[in-house]
């Protein structure tokens, strides 16, 4: 360890992102990327901005994108925040809103960046166990807390918390911020954005990396009442005034405007997910109900780790978590129909020959 490290660096356990291997003919089902390309209109908008204007700084407030998002979700522009991927948006929320005098609450099985942010920003937290069926039970969340955060659908389980349960949670915790992290909401859930104007303690975050196929340009957003957004803006402008470049702003804007392409892509992924679930169940796998672009699955007769290694030998990468409660599960991203067929064919051979 370097003698020049600050004390904070010595204490950090960084987040480990999903593997991005450089392998020919790889079927990559480990990081929940969209198997379909971005909207052609989004790609054209990005091309249109690759001119001399790149010598200039982009709009630090990305107003044209904020207006597009506000119109899309029927909120005011001052209720929209945008950042460099939802991870940056979440980071600002942890610093601006989730660091309170009481512990932050989140599920014990959830997005593994949450405890990393708590370590970075010195936030006290408490994990609330999911049920045996990997569900969030809002009755388990004590009223006395600093704030609450959870993904919906949850990751890596894929389970959805219904909108009425979220509203009850907001009503039960009027003095605590509730952040709903909706990275996967477009694959089978109903966004909580419809509740924002009724609850000043609600912040909703989303990303364009999943349902809009733009993981490569890093665009995330948050929607909440204006005072929450102002807090995020104050942190953002104390950190980086230009988080979104010109290509990201206009590409994201066009992606929101191409509704037909967005709906078609999501429907394809949902249909493929349901077919994958059916096939895996026929092979003896147990699959947790999913409203995301991935499934969480286990086989009673096979080690999840060994299944992941066997798939890797066939150039198929899935996500294995060596963690308590979920170390016998695999998280499998929904690929194309062709990719899923190869996956299922390989799994069928594994379970039939063991």
Secondary-structure blueprint:
Elements: H1 7-11, E1 27-29, H2 40-48, H3 63-73, E2 80-83, H4 85-98, E3 104-107, H5 113-121, E4 125-128, E5 147-151, H6 163-172, E6 177-181, E7 202-207, E8 220-224, H7 226-236, H8 246-257, H9 259-282, E9 286-288, E10 294-298, H10 304-313, E11 316-320, E12 330-333, H11 337-353
Parallel strand pairs: 1-11, 3-4, 3-5, 5-6, 6-7
Antiparallel strand pairs: 2-8, 7-8, 9-10, 10-12, 11-12
Helix pairs in contact: 2-8, 3-8, 4-5, 4-7, 9-11
Short description:
This protein is an alpha/beta fold. It contains 11 helices and 12 strands.
Q: Can you characterise this structure?
A:
- By secondary structure, the chain is an alpha/beta fold.
- It folds into two domains: 7-37 and 260-353, Aspartate Aminotransferase, domain 1 (Alpha-Beta Complex), CATH 3.90.1150; 40-258, Aspartate Aminotransferase, domain 2 (3-Layer(aba) Sandwich).
- The chain is built from eleven helices and twelve strands.
- The strands form two sheets. A seven-stranded mixed sheet has the order 2-8-7-6-5-3-4, with helices on both faces. A five-stranded mixed sheet has the order 1-11-12-10-9, with helices on one face.
- It starts with 6 loop residues before the first helix and ends with a helix.
- The model has no long low-confidence stretch (mean pLDDT 95).
């Amino acid at each position: 360890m370097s003698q020049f490290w600050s004390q904070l660096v010595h204490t950090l356990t960084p987040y480990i992102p999903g593997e991005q291997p450089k392998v020919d003919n790889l079927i990559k089902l480990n990081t929940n990327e969209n198997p379909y390309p971005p909207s052609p209109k989004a790609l054209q908008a990005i091309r249109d901005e690759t001119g001399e204007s790149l010598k200039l700084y982009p709009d630090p407030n990305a107003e044209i994108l904020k207006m597009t998002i506000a119109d899309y979700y029927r909120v005011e522009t001052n209720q929209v925040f945008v950042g460099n991927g939802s991870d940056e948006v979440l980071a600002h929320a942890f610093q601006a809103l989730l660091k309170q005098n009481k512990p932050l609450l989140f599920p014990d099985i959830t997005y593994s960046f949450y405890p990393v942010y708590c370590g970075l920003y010195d936030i006290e937290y408490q994990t609330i166990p999911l049920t045996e069926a990997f569900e969030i039970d809002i009755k388990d969340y004590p009223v006395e807390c600093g704030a609450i955060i959870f993904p919906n659908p949850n990751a890596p389980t894929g389970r959805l918390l219904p909108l009425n349960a979220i509203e009850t949670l907001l009503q039960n915790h009027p003095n605590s911020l509730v952040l709903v992290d909706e990275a996967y909401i477009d694959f089978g859930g109903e966004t909580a954005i419809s509740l924002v104007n009724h609850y000043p303690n609600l912040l909703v975050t989303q990303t364009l990396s999943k349902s809009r196929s733009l993981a490569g340009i890093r665009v995330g957003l948050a929607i909440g009442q204006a005072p929450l957004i102002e807090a995020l803006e104050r942190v953002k402008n104390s950190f980086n005034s230009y988080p979104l470049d010109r290509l990201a702003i206009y590409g994201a804007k066009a992606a929101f405007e191409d509704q037909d392409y967005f709906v078609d892509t999501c429907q394809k992924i949902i249909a493929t997910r349901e077919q994958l679930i059916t096939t895996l169940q026929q092979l003896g796998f147990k699959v947790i109900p999913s409203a995301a672009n991935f499934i969480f699955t286990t086989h009673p007769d096979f080690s999840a780790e060994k299944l992941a290694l066997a798939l890797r030998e066939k150039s198929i990468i899935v996500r294995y978590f060596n963690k308590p409660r979920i170390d016998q599960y695999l998280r499998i991203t929904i690929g194309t129909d062709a990719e899923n067929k190869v996956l299922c064919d390989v799994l069928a051979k594994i379970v039939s020959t063991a």
